Amino acid sequence: MAGEQRIIEYINQHIAPDYGLKLEAVGVQDPVQADRAVAEGQYAGTIYQHQWWLKQVVDANGFALSTTVPVFQWAFGIYSDRYSSVQALPNGATIVVPDDGANQGQALWLLQRIGLISLDPAVEPRTAKLKNIVGNPHQFVFKELDLLTMPRALNSVDAAIGYVSQFDAGKVPREKGILFPPAPRTFASQLVIGTPYLSQENIVKLKQAFSDPRIQTWLKTTDDPLVKDVLVPVSAE
Predict the structure, then answer these.
(1) 3-class SS at 210?
(2) Per the database entry, which stretches of residues form a coiled coil (predicted)?
(3) Where do the H-state alpha helices sit in 141-236?
(4) pLDDT tens digit sequence for 58-86
């Protein structure tokens, strides 16, 4: 993705030389193949996935991959083509949530944090599924869609919950976003490394470079339109 590429370019120019490194962003269309390439040592690492997405990939494919350093958060929130605030959503509103487990939990947890639904307390919120909703006082109707399809469906539903980057890619204006609460740190993008290579000298330096506090400062202050309000500093909690 373009925003992640900009982060790598910033680190390469301003931070990597201090650690004796030179970085290059490489685009791989298939994320599973990208993870396979990192696990096999073809590439040093990735920064496009949070730990729970990675867990799905590892569980499905058996790759030897490790999360190391949180790098940024994807801005994640609620969009609507019909309403200008969450409070305006009517009873019975149709709300679209991601259809993959790793991101559906984030969407439902968001709704619980703002008091619109209740989740089964026996279930860890980040893992919640639609079946784990135990309180729905506004009688919202939930539909599942993949993240790429969600922007195209926005005009046919009352609200949709997903990543700013996906809605930007779908040409949905930012003003259609009606709530962007801080994302939990557990969903931060991670520098993912092939587990067998964690102790290699260049990888140790890479982890140090991606831990440099200048990255978080830049994320907070940059005016780069591909990064500003799309990829944000790592949350405290």
Answers:
(1) helix
(2) none
(3) 150-153, 164-169, 201-210, 214-221
(4) 999 999 999 999 999 999 999 999 999 99
Please work out, in degrees rounded to the nearest 5, the angle formed at the alpha carbon of residue 213 by the alpha carbons of 7 and 5: 5
* Alpha carbons within 13 A on the beta-carbon side of 175: 0
Q: Which CATH class is domain 2-74+185-232?
A: alpha beta
Residue 127 near residue 115, CB atoms below 8 Å: no
| Residue 101 tokens, joined | 């487990």
Tell me the residue ranges of DSSP E strands in 80-198. Answer: 94-98, 118-119, 133-135, 141-145, 159-163, 177-179, 189-194
Hey, what are 41's tokens?
Answer: 């040592």
Q: Do domains 2-74+185-232 and 76-179 have the same CATH topology?
A: yes
- Tokens 């030389």, located at residue: 17
- Measured distance between the N- and C-terminal CA atoms of the chain, rounded to whole angstroms: 25
Tokens found for residue 18: 């201090």
Distance CA 75, CA 191 (A): 18
What's this model's pTM, rounded to 2 decimal places? 0.84
Nearest to 216 by CA among 14, 1, 53, 27: 14
∠ Cα 152 153 155 (to 5°): 100
CA gap 98, 145 in Å, rounded: 5
pLDDT tens per residue, range 189-215: 999 999 999 999 999 999 999 999 999
Count the Cβ atoms, other than its own, within 10 Å of residue 214.
Answer: 13
CB 38 within 8 A of CB 194: yes
Name the class of domain 76-179: alpha beta
